[in-house]
From TrEMBL:
Organism (species): Gossypium aridum
UniProt keyword list: Nucleus
Protein's name according to its UniProt entry: USP domain-containing protein
Molecular function terms from GO: cysteine-type deubiquitinase activity
Ranges that cross the membrane: none
Domain annotation USP: ranges: 42-376
Cell compartment(s), UniProt: Nucleus
Length: 377
């Protein structure tokens, strides 16, 4: 039996023609064990508190160029990284039309993750999907690129650019320089320092793979009537952090920061900062974010630079393709994800092995934690 499965895996090859048909396929498949499943919409085993990995994988499987790249092993045969090859293998299993059974175990991939992350992410220990997503994308990128300057499929899909204006008190400047070093791999493209009234302003550009959004503090006091009201905020309000005007203050080192998006990626990952840690415990902000599932128009809220090439069109409209949600208390909760199936524009809710169709309205009613938006072409 084991041999058949390995053979099945070996045979699992995708041609370029098949890739083009993947998002048009409406056919259900029948697994060898008799269960029916939709290729690309298969449940993943939760091996032990590995739901944070499962929701990340299911989200990334909706990113068409990334998925297509990993479905063809020749694309990364030069690469020696076990993580890259196990990720490719898992991608092929999820999208395979003739699976052994209608669910997939990410066990080999998890082993590669534990090794590559030096046990930072491991079976049996709950982690935040955003930390895992960030680590996974950065590691895959580093493993795939052939030289320091070369790009990878990761950067082609997710990399955007920010202009950062940082204002610090003059005496803090020298200390800041020491501590700033290579933080976040910032690209210091323009390094203009202007001093004014003991305040030094520094402007530079840095790449990003995701944007972190701050939720407003939930109200501390509730009267009797308002007990059950959960605070809500429109996505556009929290996106203003990146309009180049809004000031974000940092405590260590003390600085006033302004951010402006100068280049949008093809796939935009947003992370709502729901959890805060203090000395005693983790807290969760329950604020609901109201967001559009279709036609998120960014240029209405973030001033974007005009395209550099002539005839180039500024693409600023996005559609949601994945929405990771956290349910429950900060330390005991669990993650699930809503993903869109392109062939029929239907939404599915996925939580480990559980996969069910859902309404688009349900997607928007959840405690969104991390989202992937696709740029309209």
């Amino acid at each position: 039996m084991h041999v058949v499965f390995l053979l099945g895996l070996h045979i699992c090859r995708f041609s370029r023609e098949q890739l083009e048909q993947l998002d048009k396929n409406k056919q259900w498949s029948r697994a060898l064990d008799g269960s029916d499943y939709l290729p690309g919409m298969v449940g993943l085993n939760n091996i032990q508190k590995t739901d944070f990995v499962n929701v990340t994988i299911q989200s990334l499987m909706r990113v068409t160029p990334l998925r297509n790249f990993f479905l063809i092993p020749e694309n990364y045969q030069h690469c020696r990284s076990q993580l890259v090859h196990r990720f490719g293998e898992l991608t092929r299993k999820i999208w395979h039309a003739r699976n052994f059974k209608g669910q997939v175990s990410p066990h080999e991939f998890l082993q590669a993750v534990m090794k590559a992350s030096k046990k930072r992410f491991r079976i049996g220990v709950q982690c935040e999907p955003v930390e895992f997503m960030s680590w996974l994308l950065n590691t895959l990128h580093a493993d795939l690129r052939t030289s320091k300057k070369s790009s990878s499929i990761i950067h082609k899909c997710f990399q955007g650019e920010l202009e950062v204006v940082k204002e610090t008190q003059s005496k803090a400047i020298s200390e800041k320089k020491e501590s700033d070093g290579e933080q976040n791999g910032a690209l210091k493209i323009t390094d203009g320092q202007i001093e004014n009234n003991n305040v030094a302003a520094e402007t530079y550009r840095m790449p990003f793979l995701m944007l972190g959004l701050d939720l407003p503090e939930p109200p501390l006091f509730k009267d009797v009537m308002e007990k059950n009201i959960i605070p809500q905020v429109p996505l556009f309000n929290i996106l203003k952090k990146f309009d180049g005007e809004m000031v974000t203050t940092t405590v260590r080192p003390p600085a006033r920061m302004r951010y402006r998006v100068t280049k949008l990626p093809q796939y935009l990952i947003l992370h709502m900062r729901r959890f805060t840690k203090n000395n005693f415990f983790r807290e969760k902000n329950p604020t609901l974010v109201n967001f559009p599932v279709k036609n998120l128009e960014l240029k209405d809220y973030i001033p974007l630079p005009a395209p550099t090439k002539e005839n180039e069109k500024l693409r600023t409209k996005y559609d949601l393709i994945a929405n990771v949600v956290h349910d429950g208390k900060p330390d005991e909760g669990f993650y699930r994800v809503f993903v869109q199936r392109k062939s029929e524009e239907l939404w599915y809710e996925m939580q480990d092995l559980h996969v069910s169709e859902t309404l688009p309205q349900m997607v928007a009613l959840s405690e969104a934690y991390m989202q992937i938006y696709e740029q309209q072409q």
